[in-house]
Amino acid sequence: MHKATESASNSRRPACSAGDKSLVVENLRKEYTRGKPVLKNINLTVAGQCTTAIIGPSGTGKSTLLRCINRLIEPTSGRILVSGQDICTLRGADLRAARRRIGMVFQEYNLVERLSVMENVLCGRLGYISPWRAWLRKFPQQDIERAYDLLDMVGLTEFARARADELSGGQRQRVGIARAVMQQPHILLADEPTSSLDPKTSVEIMELLREVASVNDIPVLVNIHDVTLGRRFADRVVGMSKGDVVFDGVPGDLTDEHLKLIYGGEDWLA
Amino acid sequence: MSTATVARPAPFAVNWWARFGYLLAVLYCLYALSILDISWDRLLAGLDNGARFLGAMFPPEFKRWKLLIDNLLESLQIALISSLFGVLISLPVGLCASRNLMPDWLTWPARAFIAVCRSFHPVIFAILFVKAVGFGPLAGILTLIFASIGFVAKLFAEAIEEISLKPVEAARAAGAPFLSVLSFAVLPQVLNRFIGFSTYQVDSNLRNSTMIGIVGAGGIGGTLAAAFQRFDYSFVCAILLAIIALIMVSEYVAVRVKGVFQ
Amino acid sequence: MSAERIWQRFTPAERMARFVVFLVAGILLAWSFRTVEIIPEFLMDAPEQVADLFKRMWPVDYAYYERGVHAVLIETLHIATVGTIMTLGIAIPVGIMAASNVCRVPALNWLATFILVSSRSVNTLVWALLFVAVFGPGTLAGTVTIAVRSIGFVGKLFGEALEESAPGPIEALRAAGAPWISVFLKGYWPQVSPAFWGIALFRWDINVRESSVIGLVGAGGIGMALDEALNLFHWDRVALILVCIFAVVVIAEVFVTHIRKRII
């Protein structure tokens, strides 16, 4: 524990310079049942084009943390600042406007299977247009142009009219990423984006996420249970255990000692 | 030589429960038939009667075809109008009744309303509406609107409860307003089934619209009941043939329309 | 890439087909609204009339239950049950004839389909009118009505279940030289029996509803009591009968859902 907190406060921080697009989590606490916190006291700042990997055992609150950030789950206490705005106090239309600035990529892609790839990508604009226009599928021309550009980027242009359920897992996750970027977010959250994919595709998706971070100049926060993959692609690793941050530093500093602290036991390291 | 006498378990276990059940069913039938005063003699007398009845029905008489067509068209109108309103009302009611999207205080009254619509046979609604708004197609339309809600809204609510909530989560995370979440993440998942229920209900409304006239709620049923009362069985036969033809045409159309919407 | 990339949800052909469907539906509805004979005053008056109806229904005449409702309520349940059992006896052979994998004679398939379609196409109340004319008013007409009307439903679903059964065990039995009846009893029946009992229960549930109204045209059961109360304008008794029907229907549905869960 000692060592970890030491390295968490270590000055050796990755190149995550503060930009105007940032996420600050202060003293975040979440209890589903009273007195049993899932997240105890999370403090986290991400900014710049930095890719941050959150690692930790299942059930330690990684998913809850990400969902608290865009308030799909209500935090119990604490503050969350997205580009300087506290989103914990927002309601209704203000909350929706804040959510537009937070892109999210899901483990199981969360596409609408019966809609076309194009419609799924345009889903990312739903926060910007009225329900009436959404119903009639009357998206502004620049949105459609942008959607095509994003499909070019993820290499799925020829699938624009295909239905989402015709795609493979990796292709679906690319659509999921395109949808998140479509929001023009200030920050991108990815909840286990590679857990349902094979190793090769996982690597491609992680590369894509890094590319998104640099092209759009936004920080990316990735939950990942694959430590090797996290180490390889992240500029910064945050280790969580039992609702607490127990490691925060560059991947190079992550030792077996830290991993033992995060995951417990040691047999699996051999 | 003792092996020959070793008792092996019977190869097939005798299902005493099933046998007991069948026995019970037979005994019940005998009891119920005596209660209902149904006997072989009456059945045979009825069959004899039925033969004469069939004789009186054929050949069907189409001399009053104008009356027939008029009333048939009225049935069709009742079915169409009631389907329109029934389906339109079923959309919000079914949505309100779906427990995965809506809060309890809204699903509860919606489900109770659907249960009442479903529990009563359309004829009972028809009687009440005939008393309320008088004889004629209006009573029939109101009747079938309620019947439609009972069926379509219930199945629609069930369909919504079976959807995957993942796209809903994604749309909400993108900051979509509730109505956009519905049109992008919910409706695409249930639209096909909703169209299926609706076309089925149009068909069902058409069948029922030929019947509710018996209690005075408009359509061909009234003519049919009148023909029965006048023992005009050849006209009854004509009416029945016309009804069957109308329903067959509507089934064909329903299949084609479903094809358009996949 | 081209200057402006457009995207539309449907192809032109799909849009055309949808447009035609909507157009035809619109024309039919417009025609219906224009020609249907509705007196607007009656519609305006309706809420008042319904309120008046409820006022006259209240308080419900519970005292009448013993005297006038209990017996016919039980009779209704008997009609539904016996009618359903009679249906099963007829629907099994008809369903077998309709299943083209079991019965390979096209003429019999057609005959079965004809029986099923005509049973379903004619409404219960119309069947009831017919059988009241044949057997005279009373429970016999009602029971036969329920039985005949249910054949279409049970036979159709049973036939479909048979057609969906796996061919493997059937082939094995045929290969062993089993006679037709053994093939059916040991090959098909075990596969479809849960579905069959499910269908029978489901139909019984429907029949409880139907048997509660066929009395309106004289075919026995609680509907006859309802008819009488309506004709005499005993609205408090009408209310009682409606409450009883509602209760029985709800109990039947709960009962059936419960048993179906255990069968399937």
UniProtKB/TrEMBL annotation, chain A:
Coiled coil region boundaries: none
InterPro entries per record: AAA+_ATPase (IPR003593), ABC_transporter-like_ATP-bd (IPR003439), ABC_transporter-like_CS (IPR017871), ABC_transpr_PhnC (IPR012693), MetN_ABC_transporter-like (IPR050086), P-loop_NTPase (IPR027417)
Name of the protein: Phosphonate ABC transporter ATP-binding protein
Domain ABC transporter: 23-267
NCBIfam families: ABC_phnC
Gene3D superfamilies reported for this sequence: P-loop containing nucleotide triphosphate hydrolases
Domain of life where this protein originates: Bacteria
Alphabetical keyword list: ATP-binding, Cell membrane, Membrane, Nucleotide-binding, Translocase, Transport
GO molecular function, one term: ATP binding
Origin organism lineage: Bacteria, Pseudomonadati, Thermodesulfobacteriota, Desulfovibrionia, Desulfovibrionales
GN (gene name): phnC
Statement: the UniProt record of this protein carries the keyword Membrane: yes
UniProtKB/TrEMBL annotation, chain C:
Family annotation (Pfam families): BPD_transp_1
Predominant location category: membrane
Domain ABC transmembrane type-1: 73-256
Protein keywords: Cell membrane, Membrane, Transmembrane, Transmembrane helix, Transport
Keyword Transmembrane: yes
Protein's membrane topology: Multi-pass membrane protein
Regions that span the bilayer: 68-90, 125-148, 239-259
InterPro entries, per database record: MetI-like (IPR000515), MetI-like_sf (IPR035906), PhnE/PtxC (IPR005769)
Compartment(s) of residence: Cell membrane
Family membership noted in the UniProt record: Belongs to the binding-protein-dependent transport system permease family.
NCBIfam families membership: PhnE
Matching PANTHER family: ABC TRANSPORT SYSTEM PERMEASE PROTEIN P69, PHOSPHONATES TRANSPORT SYSTEM PERMEASE PROTEIN
Descriptive protein name: Phosphonate ABC transporter, permease protein PhnE
Source organism per UniProt: Nitratidesulfovibrio oxamicus
Upper lineage: Bacteria, Pseudomonadati, Thermodesulfobacteriota, Desulfovibrionia, Desulfovibrionales
